[in-house]
Fold this protein.
Amino acid sequence: MAQVFPRLLVLQLKLWALAGVGFVFVALLAWRIGIAPHPAIGTPAEQIVPFSHKHHVGDIGLDCRYCHTAVEQSAFAGIPPTHTCMTCHSELFTQQPMLAPVVQSFASGDPLQWNRIHDLPDFVYFNHSIHVAKGVGCATCHGPVDRMPLTWRVAPLTMQWCLDCHRAPEKYLRPVDRVFDMSWRPSGDQLALGRRLVAAYHIHKSSLTDCSTCHR
């Protein structure tokens, strides 16, 4: 049977098809890398200033809300502006080399550029304020930051990890007045306490796993 298409055209079509497959593969790989949580669990993130939660929270006793002022009202916990740091450091350790970026930022008005540790993909909607209002403690997601000389991620931040809590919030809830208490532990049965809090905080478990809850 005679060949319908010239061999050169067939070769070009094959090369174009191969290139298309390669492009799709590279695009998918780039997408996966782009949505992958980073940095790795348990690995301290390098920052422009080696900020220690252990020193500021564990040793000094600063409340989370002193720096993360928006956490109770906003979807974002908020990164403290430099003038918050300078509330203390205009008097304390001002000349220390490690604090030079803070002093320069305050003088210039240019904000410090911190590397994000808990970074969700853009297609995920997360609201800090609703979790705080319903009794999800900071340590539940962020771990024992009061014992972290440099901050690292303790949770995978995957969809399955979120769903584990959304399907059974009673395993994780605490009284709202203990949300920012890094040392809080349930005094008795966590499940019994959690069930009472689910009812008290009007948490509707049936809707927590709706797609639209996190994907809007």
